[in-house]
Amino acid sequence: MTGPTTSYETLTLDEPRPGVVVITLNRPERRNAMTTTMFGELEHAAEALEDDHRVVILTGAGTAFCAGYDLADADELAGLGALGMLDQQEHAARAVLAIRSMRVPVIAAVTAAAAGGGMPPTSGSRRTRPPSTCRRRSSSRSRQPARLRQWRPG
């Protein structure tokens, strides 16, 4: 890949080094909130990059990694009905599964907030690594000692 071979509406692909591909969730104005379009593009990108690369890095543009499902699209969910909603959920699951099923390592470079449904894309990665400035916040009601609530790689 000498540059993006496919143009995406919600993603950018970059190859900073041979064999290394960076997939960036590229909706910073919506904090990279996921849409049906993004689910399809993630699935397509994962399948297209399967054989030609050594590693894939998944990250987000702007001030958030991913804010979950774009609630601006939530109005149309009510009209889907039970089967339509199931189809929507399966579409999202296929995108995460496509990332998870890649035969190359996938690194989730979580450089900012990942909220609600914004965490599933990181579950498809083999390694999630926030920068040293990020901290995992847990409920004050947690029964674990503070030293165990801090984020640990791994």
Task: Give an account of the 3D structure.
It is a single chain. It is built from 4 helices and 7 strands, in the order E-E-H-E-E-H-E-E-H-E-H. It is of the alpha/beta class and 154 residues long. It has a single domain, classed as Alpha-Beta Complex (2-enoyl-CoA Hydratase, Chain A, domain 1). The protein has a 5-stranded mixed sheet. The chain has a two-stranded parallel ribbon with strand order 4-6. Helix 1 runs parallel beside helix 2. The chain is globular, with a radius of gyration of 16 Å. The protein starts with 10 loop residues before the first strand and ends in a 5-residue tail after the last helix. Residues 128-154 have low confidence and may be disordered.
